[in-house]
Amino acid sequence: MTDQADQHPVTGLDDVVHQRVRLGILTIAHQARRVEFGFLRTALELTAGNLSQHLAVLEKAGLLHVEKGYEGKRPRTWLALTPTGHQALQDEVTHLKRLIHQIEQGNSAP
Amino acid sequence: MTDASAPSPGRPHEILANLGDLTRKVRIAQRGTWFPLLLFAVLTLGAILANRFTFSIRTIPCPVSHTPVGAGPSCVLTRQGMPGYWAGGLVLAYAATAFFYLRRSRSRGVGTPIRPYVLTGIAIAVLFGATAFLGTPQTPPGPTIDFWGLHLNPHAGATMLLERFTGTAASIGVPLLVLSWVERNRALLLFTLAYLALELAPINTGSWIAPSSPWSALPHLAIPAVFLLLGALGFARTQQRSQRTTS
What we know:
The structure holds 2 protein chains of 2 kinds. By secondary structure, chain A is α+β, with helices and mostly antiparallel strands. In chain A, 55% of the residues lie in helices and 16% in strands.
């Protein structure tokens, strides 16, 4: 039986989360608590279509909660991380840190 | 155009550094530090007038322990300030700050972490107000000060420090410490520590403003008010510049 701590950190990376744009979305949503579609699009320098595709993936995976509404006559889409989303981001960052630690240990080994 | 489903390129520490940059971008968009500082500056400046117009001098019979040998049996009691001014003003300032941050959050498209700051501020302001109302002595000053059941020596350094801390230092300084924590704002933390040092430092103005003067509280209020005002201007300029850089 293999202990999880013995596994290489790469095996713990989640493909849904470990994608540049999606990782960015999760990070921003985590820090902002709630984030509007327009802010994400500007911060990540994406087109609306591209961003929507990534949001759909994250929503389908249960990592993101999407809330659509209006502010005056203007439609607004707000996004927030679900508890699973918070956990997934935390796991991803932990794996990345472990990976960095292993690389640095490998570099310092004789 | 890059493949939208490709995993994050780059080495792990580059990925983490990019995430750090995104986090900083969000924090800059969330900050509005200048606004509460400006409100506190205005409130403190207003207190100068409130103190001036509520100033009163009364001659009361001296407590036995206070009567100097050979002196008359009466003592002069000066009183100024309205407990309701600070409690009401602070609650209004925190409510206005909450409203300001919520509006900004909606216009900028990012949530706001302001709730712990506003709740701490209102709780301290209410406590501060209640203490001031209950603590207003109706009897002539005695040899000790009754502070929540503790009988403290009014001339002891620790008592004077405690008195200064339970004033505006706690009701403005402590919530600002909470704000610096929720905003992860190191500059605000340093500013708040300097503000607390300024509030807690003993300022002896007796040589140029007599304690019986209606303006005796002026230096104690004007110095922190100017400091808060300069802080508001400084943070407004810095935050405007950071927003221009990130957008």
